[in-house]
Amino acid sequence: MSSVTEQAAPSLSTSRRLAMLVIGYVPLFQVIISIALFFTPVPLLHRALAFVAWLYLVPPLCSRMAAVAPGTYTANEPPFLGWWWSQQWQTLFNRLPLLEEVLRILPSVYSLWLRLWGSRIGSLVYWGPGVSIVDRGLIDVGDSVVFGAGVRIGAHLFANDELLIARVKVESRAVVGAYSILAPGVVIGEGESTPAALLLPPHSEWRGEQRVKRRSKNAV
Hints:
Layout: H1 2-8, H2 14-23, H3 26-37, H4 44-63, E1 71-74, H5 78-95, H6 98-105, H7 109-117, E2 120-121, E3 126-127, E4 132-133, E5 139-141, E6 146-147, E7 152-153, E8 156-159, E9 162-165, E10 168-170, E11 175-176, E12 181-182, E13 187-188, E14 199-200, E15 204-207, E16 210-214
Parallel strand pairs: 2-5, 3-6, 4-7, 5-10, 6-11, 7-12, 10-13, 12-14, 13-15
Antiparallel strand pairs: 1-9, 8-9, 15-16
Helix pairs in contact: 2-5, 3-4, 3-5, 4-5, 4-7, 6-7
């Protein structure tokens, strides 16, 4: 996340820099409240429930308060700040992957949690160990999809002072090979199976066991 700030900083207004700085304290705020809940003078069960709700329910709901539509934005446009707000509520999970691995132990719970962020997730989706989703509210997954170990999915890309946001779509019964990387706007077709360690660049599509075309920059 620091690279985003470094590249965008020259073109940012003072008020925008200040807003990003303040929002950047969201992860620390999450940690402080989480610790404080352990010392609240209430029964242990109540503290545990409050902790789980704060850790897993509040972040997706707060993130959706500033949901950003797919598109391309400069650093001084309002959607950029909304995206930054959403990313800060996800930072704790990016830094501590074990928090998400715990959810994957229980069938369907992780998929349900991603729906809270704003993603559209089908039924019977298998998430391999170490799957990393950077933009938890910007993926569409069909039914009976399998994600191999270590798959990385990102629905945003920042380059040349522009932020690209595009949903990643994996259609039903697809298998995503282990350690593959899916960039913004990627589409994997129904029933497809990708090789391991596949890198799919932005707005590319995988069908017929190959990358068949580049998709439009404005595709979502």
